[in-house]
Design a protein that fits this description.
Blueprint (H helix, E strand, L loop, with lengths): L2 H8 L6 H9 L7 E2 H11 L5 H14 L3 E3 L7 E3 L7 E5 L5 E4 L25 E4 L2 H5 L1
Parallel strand pairs: 4-6
Antiparallel strand pairs: 1-3, 2-3, 4-5
Helix pairs in contact: 2-3, 3-4
Length: 138
């Protein structure tokens, strides 16, 4: 059972066949699918699942804080089930591939108090950009 499914069961989330399939599609490391990619994979497992159900389920998972919406460079939103493990993203500027990365240290330490303008910072989102091996070959 995936970490996401385990968390959802622990919350008592009603696990319909459709919701389960969406959660199963999101299982794994470095998963950053668009809603359409989730739909395509879910349809293979459960042909009768609808686009509206997939989109609604993704919205619920985001609202619950169990999935993170990732936007990169104006491309389609992607859904990251790695919501409970601090990480940053490495994004390919060519194809848009996204990988989870775990740089050392506390990124908040890189922002001096004089640059916080009185904000009580609660989270840091850093994105590393470059070309993946496939895009850098071409």
């Amino acid at each position: 059972m995936s970490d996401l499914l385990r968390r959802l069961r622990g919350r008592g989330w009603r696990m319909t066949a459709q919701r389960r399939v969406v959660a199963e599609v999101l299982a794994g490391e470095h998963v950053h699918f668009t809603a359409d990619e989730v739909l395509a994979r879910a349809t293979v497992r459960l042909p009768e699942i609808s686009r509206a159900t997939v989109y609604n389920t993704l919205g619920e998972l985001v609202a619950l804080g169990e999935v993170i919406e990732v936007s990169a460079d104006g491309r389609a939103k992607r859904y990251d089930p790695n919501a409970h493990h601090p990480h940053q993203h490495l994004v390919c500027s060519g194809c848009g591939a996204i990988r989870d990365v775990h740089p050392g240290g506390d990124p908040l330490e890189q922002l001096p108090a004089s640059e916080r303008f009185g904000f009580a910072v609660s989270e840091v989102q850093m994105t590393f950009r470059g070309l993946c091996p496939d895009c850098s070959r071409g």
